[in-house]
Amino acid sequence: MVINILSEETIDKIAAGEVIERPSSVVKELVENAIDAGAKSVTVEIKEGGISFIRVTDNGSGIEASQIKKAFYRHATSKLTNASDLAYVSTLGFRGEALSSIAAVSQVELITKTADSLTGVRYVIEGAKEVECTEVGVPTGTTIIVRNLFFNTPVRKKFLKSPTTEGTYIYEICERMALSKPDVSFQFIQNGQVKFHTSGDGDLKELVYRIYGKEIAKETIPICQVGKNITISGILGKPTITRSNRNYENYFVNGRYIKSQMLSSAVEEGYSAYLMQHKFPFFIINFEVNSELVDVNVHPTKMEVRFSNGNEFYDYIASTVSTVLKMQEFIPDITLSEEPKIKEKLEKAPEPFEMNRSIRNDYSTKIGSVIESVVQNDKNVSMAESNIIKAERAVYVTAPEQMTLFETPFLSKEAEVNIEIIGQIFDTYWLFSYGEKLLIMDQHAAHEKVKYERLVEKIKNKSVVSQTLNPPIIVTLKNRERDILETYMEYFEGLGFSIEEFGNQDIAVRTVPIDLYGHSEKDLFITLLDELCDDMPKGKQEIIYEKLASMACKSAVKGNQTMSREEVKALLQEMMTLDNPYNCPHGRPTLISMTKYELEKKFKRIV
Ligand code: ADP
Ligand code: MG
């Protein structure tokens, strides 16, 4: 057997396999470099899903002529000097692997100039081999063009998805990078068309408007909480705009876009009282974490991080999110007609080579026509590739709308005298008028919520009343169920169950919480056990109580029933005392509202 020492070229290709998985990895690395170089403006342009062409242009520091070749060496970086720096990494890059990896598997053209030098350099490198190095006249900043990705690694190329899909990955990465840096202007161009262009003026809400559109932007709440080792800032989507997957969960750690199960579930837990099962929130959060408590050097793609005190962060994040949500009034508006047209206003964000340009200055007719042509182009694209287009969100910015309308919340003592109870319909819904609004309450959802909150309270105060069962319920347990039952025994007892061994594999349930009595207690008990077996985080007393109470309530809610006006008033008063009266324990709304404006639109009193 002979042991070979691999050539630099081979080593680079192998390393490239870890860092550069697909075109979107190239884009991510190049944009990170642009941000690290202090760019205020970054343009990403791709063709054919980035497989044949990627261009990233920035107006950052540029690379000094003498340093260019070095930048393409493996483990060559200006961001670290030794391993001890790793604990304080403040740049997005630090491994010095991106440029060498990209150059190993594609044809790269670099054009760069620093502010100090009069001319720039054009450097061409293909499959890690230098092809050309010439002087050129260019503005300060860096452009990197990557052509024919994986041209020399056919196997990797075979695993790429269609250009449309790869293009979508890049689109998403660019959106996230833009969201992570509201103070950097991003432009994304796909097959010759501008898909979005952010202003870089630091306004996160405006950024959301440009990327996600008006519907989402107006349903957001700011969050900002400074903690000991972690600061949480950004915006939370109201529970009215939930999604069926996690694609709308945007989070960053110290400005770095990463994936983290812990962060994602912590935020979701904060939302748990408001979301239905299998629904996920919309949010954009930057977690500013003491850099000594987070290890960013976990994986070559830098998409994973490790926290040294994850549990502490988890609890802090979940409770912060839930507190912010609790302070809001969430009554979804129903809209029967189209939104009123808002005067459109055009703004232009700076191009990479325009330094320090004020964003909100006047715009010339020239710009107007540029934008017109972009919009025209986008229309064409919409027809061709409608699945990936958000063209209508690009470029335009409408005049800032008043996002939150101040008024006394419907569910408040002050509002009470102005609420008129109109009556009940379909044995289920109560109608109220209040100010300029018609409100509709789902009586059962509201009842359930009140009942649930009372039960949680009782459990917490250990004042649950039990009901003795005669005969007791006998349940046969499997090993895993027995483990779970032992782990959570005190919670079951807190809820009002008393449980004893009953020989062999069996247990006897002798009492149940009174709220459960008469509602197929055995099924419910087994379901509770199953739920706990599933994915209950250990030791989270609060959630367990809530889960138990939620199930208990669900079973206890009766079918249609008539209520008197007095009872409705009492119900409203009870709701006022709750932290979150707007959703039932399963996340469904208890109240919806419709504005007078909507009605007038419907009756064509206003057009
Ligand atoms: P890393 O980002 O981990 O340092 P890279 O391989 O991505 O490694 O880049 C190598 C070096 O090239 C960087 O440390 C930086 O000095 C320089 N560089 C890369 N891209 C840019 C850019 N867009 N502007 C200025 N310098 C850059
Ligand atoms: Mg880098």
Describe this structure in words.
With 607 residues, the protein is α+β, with helices and mostly antiparallel strands. It has an 8-stranded mixed sheet. Strands 9-10-13-11-12 form a 5-stranded mixed sheet, sandwiched between helices. A 4-stranded antiparallel sheet has the order 18-19-20-24. A hairpin with a 6-residue loop joins strand 3 (107-113) and strand 4 (120-126). Helix 14 (479-487) crosses helix 16 (521-535). It starts with 7 loop residues before the first helix and ends in a 5-residue tail after the last helix. Mean pLDDT is 82; it is low at 338-347, 355-384 and 386-406. Adenosine-5'-diphosphate (ADP) binds at residues 29, 33-34, 36-37, 58, 60-63, 71, 76-79, 93-99, 142. Adenosine-5'-diphosphate binds next to helix 2 and helix 4.
Task: Summarize this structure as a short list of keywords or feature phrases.
8-stranded mixed sheet, binds magnesium ion, single chain, globular, 607 residues, 5-stranded mixed sheet, binds adenosine-5'-diphosphate, 24 strands, alpha+beta
Number of helices: 19
Helix/sheet category? alpha+beta
Point out poorly predicted stretches: 338-347, 355-384, 386-406
Tell me, what's the shape?
globular
Helix content: 25-40%
> How many strand units?
24
The set of bound ligands, ions and cofactors reads:
adenosine-5'-diphosphate, magnesium ion
Specify the biggest β-sheet: 8 strands, mixed
Strand order of the largest sheet: 5-4-3-6-2-1-7-8
Mean pLDDT: 82
